Predict the structure of Glutathione reductase.
Amino acid sequence: MTKQYDVVILGGGVAGGSLAHSLRRQKKTVAVVEDNLFGGTCPNRGCDPKKILLAGLEVTQLVDDMQGNGISGKVSVNWPDLMRHKRQYTNPISNATQNGLISDGIDTYHEHAHFNQDGLIEAGSDLLSGDKYVIATGQRPSILDIPGKELFKTSTDFLNLDQMPSDVTFIGGGYIGFELAGIAHAAGAKVHLIHHNDHPLKQFDQQLVSQAVDHLKKLGIDFHMDTDVKEVTQVGDQLVLSGDDFRLPTDMVFCTAGRTPNVDTIGLENVNVKTDKHGVVVNDYLQTSNPNIFAMGDVVSTKRPKLTPVAGFEAGYLAKYFNGSTDKIQFKSIPTIVFGQPALAQVGLPSSIATDESRYMLITNDMSAWYSYHRLNEPLAKAKVVIDRDTETVVGATVLSNHADYLINIFTLMIDQQMKISDFNKEILAYPTFASDVQYLI
Amino acid sequence: MTKQYDVVILGGGVAGGSLAHSLRRQKKTVAVVEDNLFGGTCPNRGCDPKKILLAGLEVTQLVDDMQGNGISGKVSVNWPDLMRHKRQYTNPISNATQNGLISDGIDTYHEHAHFNQDGLIEAGSDLLSGDKYVIATGQRPSILDIPGKELFKTSTDFLNLDQMPSDVTFIGGGYIGFELAGIAHAAGAKVHLIHHNDHPLKQFDQQLVSQAVDHLKKLGIDFHMDTDVKEVTQVGDQLVLSGDDFRLPTDMVFCTAGRTPNVDTIGLENVNVKTDKHGVVVNDYLQTSNPNIFAMGDVVSTKRPKLTPVAGFEAGYLAKYFNGSTDKIQFKSIPTIVFGQPALAQVGLPSSIATDESRYMLITNDMSAWYSYHRLNEPLAKAKVVIDRDTETVVGATVLSNHADYLINIFTLMIDQQMKISDFNKEILAYPTFASDVQYLI
């Protein structure tokens, strides 16, 4: 028997779950189909577990930095303990998320689903029909297509690793590679990071990326730039990565070379939904080429960063759209961050684009001698702020420091609220804090 | 010979220094007279050194909290090292501040100064005459007037203490007492905090204060509430504090019972400047009862919290006023914070005042199980947010957590910018961070 819903959502991640709850508040009937963990990438195998494991790096680095500056004694990451601490948080997520949906009156299906030739959703033995459908199936780690690729592990494996090997290698210098490399290094592993060209973290300010890389090199992380790995082989207990003039034996290899949208096994060919290599193509209403089918979250083909709060925002948009709103989706600034020590964060107009000096003023500061960074003996703290001369507002900012997230969130609010610098300087903020420093940065 | 200036400023602290530089940008002639350290309380013996020493508490507490949750090993505060780390920052401040003034063309006098009977400033052998005068002499620690009071030490002594004694006592449970008690406890001292009634930190939410006190008690700090110390005596190597039914032997006693405005030795009686017990009385233009004499910073009699950013704001106001602006001074929200583990911060309307339920909605959250606090295993994390039902904006917030300053600064911006909650919820903030949690608090 076919079950009929107002909206059927494929994918029970951040976007899918959030939209489902919102639609229930509108008294709509909703089904959510999820073939993996309810809650999706972010809380199960993404942002949240990553940042729990990052606590190991934060604590050990802080103790190292403060050694001789007021702190005696040494600490180390106990990986099994840290993993247990992570699992305490992540293990209940999927059930709790599913139960939350169910108790809100949402039908959940823990099945892999696809559109069949009649345009209905087949979820196991169930057939689901919706007035509207929403694709929110997210992405999965991409695997480099080379001989031996079955020996690769992924970020998902890393975030659930029982023991940290002595020597680990990450292939791909995007934000996932950088973040996991920092965590593994703090946990005591010898870490290699391989990148195919010499522009890792290409979407970030390259001058600050280069300073971050130099710093991580000093700490002992090995960077192998301009390196194409062409084969992985098992040699005894180790894996050997090889390429032209390159050979690296290592214990474990994580492929962190990007993510692939989950569009290939959900029957999109049956319902005329167009995709490209970045995901499902949508218009300004998140509507696909099939007018009854929408898409949101990481599965969407977009130049926007694919981030949890973006997915949440899109879910919020669709909830309003399905409730009658006819506005196009419009985004505020989207800050992006590579968590680590240091963290690298950016929002708004990058300084590399804001080169017209008659229009923009670029203020660059090395903050490492500033009070806030001296007190914790932070070795690296830089900020670049782009100011629009005409409006006298901040329009972009990049921050490299252990506390970059604090500053980037303040800058995000300043940009979105179009606060004039003179108005921000009238703010009285808790002193001394990273936020009160902002008045010296603009 | 009398030296003539546009403006003579008594006090080379945050307010005085800032105003002097601003006036120079207006091409005015300026003198700054300081009898102690240039830079004043904040960078020499206030906020900045305090928060450097607080790093000891932050690091040891973090390691303790994470023990068994991913971190192995123990650390301790090395007080002499920490003090050296502090002095590296504070020692150069006075000279650097004075040199900064001098190189900006400001005349500096390192003398105790007072208004003489002719209404001129006598600074050592110099006589200074100004078109306008500004009193910015700040405050000093109050000393409880009891027998043995010469045995008391002050916050200034604490912030320059070469060795941490085994057993230290603070008299006065205001924010200075709490902050220093936390620092001393982290440094390994047995700590007593004595307060004359049972409402310490009286300007803060008493429910959260009580929870903070309970937490600090569990960590081993001894609180002696409703206790009046009536005498201090030296007995051998120790001091003994005594009162009715109270006797406490201890190694060192810090009087943290408030601060006294520096108004008593600057000849105000010669120039008809009115004071009360809170300081120099001023009108809405920071003008004293003598129209040519102004006052700003901690020395002003006010119900506002006496804080560094308030002093800076007042200096900015006077710079504009002296440049022809005729606006009254108007303050944005003033956040206040007791730094510590946990820190307690508050801004805007307190929940104890916003009791009209038809007008205000109070949202109270225990955040300790939330992701951001789980990851660092923070034991105590609470927030109270007051929302105006009519305007749908945040009008007040109180936060108790190790990271209260981060949240309180976000709330301060929301209050001042009168951001509607629906607008804040459209913000995309770096995730997961304390700032992105705010959308769950409102």
Q: What stands out?
A: Chain A touches chain B through 75 residues (CB under 8 Å). The first strand of chain A starts at residue 2 and ends at 10.
